[in-house]
Amino acid sequence: MTEGYARLYGPLAVVTVLAYFLPITDRREIDSVAEMTVNDDPIAAVATFVLVALVGCLVAATLRPATTIWLPAWIAITSGMCGVMLLQNKNALPGKVNSIGAGIIVLALGTTVLAVAHAVHLIVIRERR
Fold it and tell me: Transmembrane segments in this chain: where (predicted)?
């Protein structure tokens, strides 16, 4: 009954991987890879680890639709962490973020909302049984 969420998680995984390499500011050299390698930012390294975990959870939810709330919960946690890390990024201050960066932040927070809705849907289904 909740297999429809799996159809959304696959494209989200692809877009999330692509968004990792896009610049979030008008300065073209600032993207997540540049912050981690050139600027030697440890927070960018943690964000990369969280992003890899998020993509892994999204792929797992695509290939095997969730029957318990754990996978949507992990998707919500990791995407929420990505969104908060992007909001707290020193290069993502108001006025410095371009439209791509704003879209990536909305994507992360939208994925969080989708995963929470999926978890609530699974809880409601379990309670009806």
Answer: 6-22, 43-63, 69-87, 99-124
**Alpha carbons 44 and 31: distance in angstroms, whole number:** 10
77-101 burial string, b = 16+ CB within 10 Å, else e?
Answer: bbbbbbbbbbeebebbeeeebbeeb
Averaged pLDDT in 10-residue chunks for the chain of 129 residues:
86 92 71 63 80 94 90 96 82 72 90 96 90
What is the pLDDT, as a whole number, of residue 29?
57
- Helices 99-128, 70-87: crossing angle, 10 deg rounding: 160
**36 lies in which domain range?**
4-128
